[in-house]
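## retry 2 of 3
previous attempt timed out at serialization; input unchanged, resubmitting
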Amino acid sequence: MKAESASRTAEFVALFRALETAKPPKRRFFEDPLAVAMLPATLRVPATFANVPVLREALIRFVDSRWPRTRSSAVARTKLRRSRLPQNHDG
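## retry succeeded, writing output
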């Protein structure tokens, strides 16, 4: 890994967070407005497709079939960490 770039693992976790954020508010576990900004150009394209519901679901099915439990584990870890943070984030 180069010092000026993120690891592939970090990039894919950012993709998983972007996919979760693209879900409708009542279906997502959290919102991460910075997730897409953290993605390299090659992963920004699929993240953009995630705004179209049928494409998002197809991408999620592809990821889940290729790397079982990886995406859901990243989403669950993020949800758990956020649930343990104080609710008031004001300075």
